[in-house]
Amino acid sequence: MMLHVPNVLTRDQVLDMRDRLDAADWLDGKVTVGAQGARVKNNRQLPEHGAVSRELGQIVLDAVKASDLFFAAALPLRIVPPLFNRYEGGETYGLHVDGAMRPLVAGEGWLRTDLSCTLFLCDPEDYDGGELEVVDTYGTHEVKLPAGDLILYPSTSLHQVTPVTRGARVCSFFWLQSLVRDGTQRQMLFDLDMNIRKIRAQLGDSAEVLGLTAHYHNLIRQWAEA
User: Fold this and answer.
1) Per-residue pLDDT tens for 1-10?
2) Biggest CA-to-CA distance, the chain
3) Residue 77 phi/psi, 5° resolution?
4) By CB atoms within 10 Å of each CB, which of 51, 101, 162, 196 scores lowest?
């Protein structure tokens, strides 16, 4: 499942973050990938453990945790601290798949990457190119969202960022491990949740709504890994 989550950050939050990011020192993006990824990755990245990355990453984490739509789709168990990247002057990241595991902070172990997230920090008209292309069994999907919006997609997908030929593409990106490992089960739970909300808006907390809500939670109870 790919999902567009709008308005994760406000316009003021985006502008404040961009001021700090534009003034920051950036590193070669190859520092955070393995040998295979390094062959196709050509961008820059904010130092992972620097003060700016930690402070802005916490803003992103607080924002996604406050997003009801994000939570409903992802059912997050653990989230890797958000990172930040920048593409300009033809920079690109060729077709690749994200690593299956990511280390957590302070020796807290590892996280299985079930879902990948890209949070856009600039508007589509600010740059040319730079589309996130995600490949699945239904074809290739191009994503280029307004500043403050997020795309959520399976980490198992092949994907790439096309060359940026004008302006700069600045984003936050991160991975999460879901409470529900199976993507089909997550999709079913999300669809059920969305339909329960629609029925509740029409009928209130009727017996039917309460019954479906109980079914939803019992499925999570059966499928969740905690």
Assistant:
1) 899 999 999 9
2) 59
3) -100, -50
4) 51
